[in-house]
Amino acid sequence: MTAAAEASYSPAMRIKQSFCLPMYRPQGLDLATLFREAKSAGYPATEVWDRFALTDPGWEEIFETARSAGLAIASMSGHRSLPDGLNKAENHERIEAELRESIDVAVRWGIPGLICFSGNRNPGQSDLEGMVVSARGLRRIARYAGEKGVNLNVELLNTRVNHPGYQCDHTDWGAALCEMVGSPRVKLLYDIYHMQIMEGDLIRTIRANIARIGHFHTAGNPGRQDLDDEQELNYKGICRAIAATGYDGYVGHEFRPKGDVIAALRAAFAVCDQG
Question: Is the CB of residue 69 less than 8 Å from the CB of residue 32?
Answer without folding.
Answer: yes
